[in-house]
Amino acid sequence: MKIVGVDLGGTNIKAALVDENGEITRQKTTKTLVNEGTEMICNRIIGLIKEIALDEPVKVGIGSPGSIDRENGVIMYANNITALNGVELVRMIKESTGYDAYLENDAKAAALGERWFGSARNIDNFIVLTLGTGVGGGAYTEGHLIVGGHGYGGEIGHMIVDPSGPVCSCGSKGCLETFSSVTGMRKWVKIFQERYPDSLVFKYSGNGPVDAKAIFDAFKEGDRLATLVVRKFNWGLGIGIGSLVNIFNPDLIILSGGISRASDIFLEEVKQVAHEHTYPSLSHSYDIIISELKEKGAILGAASVALERTK
Ligand SMILES: [Zn+2]
Question: What is the distance in A from the centroid of ligand 1 to the CA of 47?
Fold first, then answer.
């Protein structure tokens, strides 16, 4: 059985044909264009699935941001694609294509992807953290993905690591996401920019918004502002991982998502901070690694949703 994996995001929709060994063949990307409304976005998703499937018998796995009603295949709330909130996406796909589709939160899909194709193939207790625009998470305990009673649990990015930290998009303060994501690093750049108006971060960002690359490049040059921001990133992530280890006792913490590829900048310090914040008997019980799936992680995660639900 082949699967069309769909990685639904606020900027792009990516889809690819994936086989049971994780081999990716056909792959296409289209813009989400969130302002064009529900019908247009759904039509683009369905069109992309048809273009990838080419009338072959397939199943469809979708990774979406936000809270998911996985039983009914509905995105309950995604704050970067609000036009899809409450839409019966799985039913629409079935009606338009005839294909069975399965929906999951994208970070939980990434965890499934590690279980099917990545570093967690033989590991029953692990946690995946997706580091990108925000921070997502998926925790596996004794071979099961934790979703909680209503299915919305596991919002690891909104675990509070410092209650006096910056205000988060969720309305709370000092969530992990306000430290260890692109959005979080931008908040810290703003906080420090008055002190360091001549930072290389601004030079490297040009006229666009500050991105992770500009911060990491400036950090490598010893830039003061970038150093403070990276320190906040490391501190938040290390404390967050320390708490996760204390609660879940995982064997492995897998970091994935775009920012994870800059691990040479942050991994050693994050390991150190995490170590300082874990309960003594747990402090040597786990390792923190970078996902080996790299840019394929999101698509393979989406495809894993269909594999997991039909196994
Ligand atoms: Zn939050």
Answer: 34
